[in-house]
Amino acid sequence: MKAKTLLRKLGDFQEDKINEEVILEKLRSSEADSIWFNEHYEELKAKYKNEWVAVFRKKVVDHHRNQKVLLRRLRENYPQDSDAIVVEFVSLEDVILIL
């Protein structure tokens, strides 16, 4: 195999590995933000009644009553990370899930 071809394949492998690491880090971050959201729900409920709340790196980065508006702003303001931001609805009423 030619050296250039081998280097290109090695570069592709390293790029794939970097992409995988980025994806795993975003998943870890989103999980931590979801946990943070749940732990701080009562505080969030007092501030953001019946709004969609965006949490990134364990802090509220934006909120809005309209989910589409919020998602558009997140894509504009966090183009590299918008897919890792946790967006949840803060309801005034307690929601009971029946499984």
Notable traits:
3 helices, 3 strands, 56% helix, 99 residues, alpha+beta
Write the topology of this structure.
Blueprint: H1 3-39, H2 41-47, E1 51-55, E2 60-64, H3 67-77, E3 86-90
Antiparallel strand pairs: 1-2, 1-3
Structural class, please?
alpha+beta
Discrete helix count:
3
Given as residue ranges, the uncertain stretches (5+ residues, pLDDT < 50) are: none
Give the overall silhouette.
Answer: globular
Order of helices and strands: HHEEHE
The largest sheet, given as strand count, sense and whether it forms a barrel, is: 3 strands, antiparallel
Give a structural overview.
- Strand 1 (51-55) and strand 2 (60-64) form a beta hairpin.
- Strands 2-1-3 form a three-stranded antiparallel beta sheet, with helices on both faces.
- The chain has helices at 3-39, 41-47, 67-77; strands at residues 51-55, 60-64, 86-90.
- It has one domain (3-90).
- The chain starts with a helix and ends in a 9-residue tail after the last strand.
- The relative contact order is 0.14.
- It is an alpha+beta fold and 99 residues long.
- The chain is globular, with a radius of gyration of 19 Å.
Provide a concise account of the structure shown.
With 99 residues, the chain is of the alpha+beta class. It contains three helices and three strands.
